[in-house]
Amino acid sequence: MTPPDPARWRALCLGALALFLVLSAGAALGTLPGDVAVRALVRAHLGSEAGPLFHGVNRGGTWLVLLPATALLFALSAHARRRWWLWCAVLVIAPAIEDGWKVLVARPRPEGSAFGFPSGHATAAAAYVVSALYLLGRAPLGRGGRVAVGAVVVVALGVGVGTARLALDAHWVSDVVGGWALGAACAAGAAWWDASREASAPAAAPPTATERLERRTAD
Predict the structure, then answer these.
(1) Between 77 and 150, where is the model more confident?
(2) Which residues does residue 115 pair with via DSSP β-bridges, in sequence order?
(3) What one-character DSSP code corresponds to residue 114?
């Protein structure tokens, strides 16, 4: 299996971080262009009858779903188990940053006075999604299996959770995008570090003639 390219994950980490910081600066000043329009569009097309569905999807951004999903990821990926502490740290640190950042930006949600930027559900879901995509790329599932599982993870936990937060009128769209950017930056940073360790590891030396002879004799 080809080792992952650190440059790809570095680009995702830095790009997502830049987007997050730009959105943070804008959110500190108030609503951003598109926030009000997207809220009106969502409220017009997603009626109250869809509420129970979105309440269920919304749990994808909580530990009720992410904890068993992480256990499943460890079961599928030996590489995840190898540095389990790194991926667990991502899923803890990203929400911790989000929690403190809300106070720093101090922008209210669409309803009520609670701070909303960035969305905690979107942050946690994106941190898991990007971690999963990196680790599934190293899992022995076959290309088709990795694509299928990755698509389910992205749609159900990434897009689904973000849509649910908007449908439940819990966040502005920039809160959700900011959460996606923060979670992606944290997970891609971990993937960048992990891939760099893989790339810098010395290649195993080919067996010597004596070692080859010993192996054949043992067989």
Answers:
(1) 77
(2) 108
(3) S
- Give the Cα separation of 70 and 88 in Å (integer): 8
Tokens linked to 176: 């959700």
Instruction: Extract the tokens encoding 120.
Output: 């905690």
Q: Is the full-model pTM beyond 0.90?
A: no
With vertex at residue 16, the alpha carbon angle to CA 126 and CA 5, rounded to the nearest 5 degrees, is 90
User: What are the φ and ψ backbone dihedral angles of 170, each rounded to 5 degrees?
Assistant: -90, -20
Q: Of residues 15 and 2, which shows the higher confidence score?
A: 15
Burial 97-123 (b: 16+ CB within 10 A, else e): bbeebbeebebebbeeeebbbbbbbbb
pLDDT at 187 over 50: yes
Helix spans in the chain (H): 6-27, 35-45, 51-58, 63-76, 78-82, 84-105, 120-136, 142-153, 160-167, 173-200, 209-218
Is residue 134 left, alpha or beta, with left meaning phi > 0 and alpha meaning psi from -120 to 50?
alpha
